[in-house]
């Protein structure tokens, strides 16, 4: 692993690597194909599905930031999940996934399991008994998402990896919500890390992308082979934009957290706010684990509206600086209603089982001035308070 600090790795990636013109910022290679020096002599790159200098630069940077041996940059986070499933799982193999995982992850595992590609078991991974029962079935892969979406549940990655290893299972962690700046699952024992780079890593809500990072060099090579085989790799232009976003990841994560802490303090005083879900809260069941395994609490937060659906609606529509949209991790603040938006692919029963209530709202706190964000929340709550109960 590199001895450079994470912010330095993120900023310096590819800087001054251009040997042609000494460009400080690395150039983008949009080419789909590469010429062979001569017949029978294979160049380093031959076709951009299998390899591209811009995309590989991003993959190497992300692998270094996560302390992995190698990574594959994919067309989206979902493609990274599908890539791991394709490379690792066959009929008869079991994957154990969290019952409250990202909606698209749930749909992907569920749909492919229904086709007979592999088996899936969704469990509450914060329930030690449920987890032990699942591991006793000798899964091939344990999928972890911590903090989880949208309830910010925390799984003890180190403990889970220890238990999983005893049952011969590999562990993959979806690290999208924290980024390597705030959590490095491989250092906690994970075998794979995936990101939807669409979120904090690109950070500007203008690219859909993903990455799958392997701890082990041999696994990394096998995954790269599969990525080429199934055509999961991302576009060079997207990789270029994501490299640009990556350079400011460390300071962005700090400011996201700062704004989020101020908003949490404000929300705690609001009569229309019910339960708040954020690992910084001492009463959050994962608070102590988050302190142990994370380098910050992160800035995603959810809360329930203690009022009617009409009040929730008025509140959401009254906001000016929180756009009603899915996704997260961009410079602009977003608000999402998980039950009808990100998690609508889950049945009502599955939502209820995951503890996801229709009164729940999720905030992706952006980089606007915190005072403006709080003033905006305040005027929207005042409008909602006036709606007849
Ligand atoms: C968005 C997201 C994904 C899926 O990534 P896409 O880039 O949208 O395909 C997976 N996991 C988490 C936690 C996400 O937020």
UniProtKB/TrEMBL annotation:
GO molecular function terms noted in the UniProt entry: cystathionine gamma-lyase activity; cystathionine gamma-synthase activity; pyridoxal phosphate binding
Pfam family, one: Cys_Met_Meta_PP
InterPro entries listed in its UniProt record: Cys/Met-Metab_PyrdxlP-dep_enz (IPR000277), Cys_met_metab_PP (IPR054542), O_succ_thio_ly (IPR011821), PyrdxlP-dep_Trfase (IPR015424), PyrdxlP-dep_Trfase_major (IPR015421), PyrdxlP-dep_Trfase_small (IPR015422)
Alphabetical GO biological process terms: cysteine biosynthetic process via cystathionine; methionine biosynthetic process; transsulfuration
Cofactor entry: pyridoxal 5'-phosphate
Modification N6-(pyridoxal phosphate)lysine, positions: 199
Domain of life, source organism: Bacteria
GO cellular component: cytoplasm
Keyword line: Lyase, Pyridoxal phosphate
Assigned protein family: Belongs to the trans-sulfuration enzymes family.
Protein name, UniProt field: O-succinylhomoserine (Thiol)-lyase
């Amino acid at each position: 692993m590199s001895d450079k600090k994470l912010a330095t790795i993120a900023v310096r990636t590819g800087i001054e690597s251009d040997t042609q013109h000494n460009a400080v910022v690395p150039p983008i290679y949009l080419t789909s194909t590469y010429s062979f020096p001569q017949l029978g002599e294979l160049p380093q790159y031959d076709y951009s599905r299998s390899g591209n200098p811009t995309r590989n630069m991003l993959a190497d940077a992300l692998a270094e930031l996560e302390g992995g041996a190698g990574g594959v940059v994919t067309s989206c986070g979902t493609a990274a999940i599908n890539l791991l499933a394709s490379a690792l799982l066959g009929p008869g193999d079991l994957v154990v996934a969290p019952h409250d995982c990202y909606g698209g992850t749930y749909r992907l595992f569920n749909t492919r399991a229904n086709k007979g590609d592999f088996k899936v078991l969704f469990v509450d991974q914060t329930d030690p008994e449920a987890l032990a029962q699942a591991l006793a079935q000798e899964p091939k892969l344990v999928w972890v998402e911590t903090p989880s979406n949208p309830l910010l549940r925390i799984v003890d990655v180190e403990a889970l990896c220890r238990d999983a290893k005893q049952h011969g299972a590999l562990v993959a962690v979806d690290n999208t919500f924290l980024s390597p700046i705030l959590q490095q699952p491989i250092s906690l024992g994970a075998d794979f890390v995936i990101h939807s780079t669409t979120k904090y890593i690109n950070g500007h809500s203008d690219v859909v992308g993903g990455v799958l990072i392997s701890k082990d060099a041999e696994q990394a090579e096998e995954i790269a082979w599969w990525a080429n085989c199934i055509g999961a790799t991302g576009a060079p232009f997207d990789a270029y934009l994501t490299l640009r976003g990556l350079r400011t990841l460390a300071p962005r994560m700090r400011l996201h957290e700062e704004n989020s802490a101020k908003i949490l303090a404000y929300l705690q005083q609001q009569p229309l706010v019910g339960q708040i879900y954020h690992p910084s809260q001492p009463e959050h069941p994962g608070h102590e684990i988050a302190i142990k395994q994370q380098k910050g609490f992160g800035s995603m937060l959810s809360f329930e509206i203690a009022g009617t659906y009409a009040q929730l609606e008025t509140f959401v529509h009254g906001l000016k600086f929180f756009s009603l949209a899915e996704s997260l991790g961009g410079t602009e603040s977003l608000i999402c209603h998980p039950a009808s938006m990100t998690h609508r692919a889950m049945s009502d029963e599955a939502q209820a089982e995951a503890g996801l209530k229709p009164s729940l709202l999720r905030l992706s706190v952006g980089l606007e001035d915190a005072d403006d964000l709080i003033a905006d929340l305040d005027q929207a709550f005042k409008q909602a308070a006036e709606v007849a109960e």
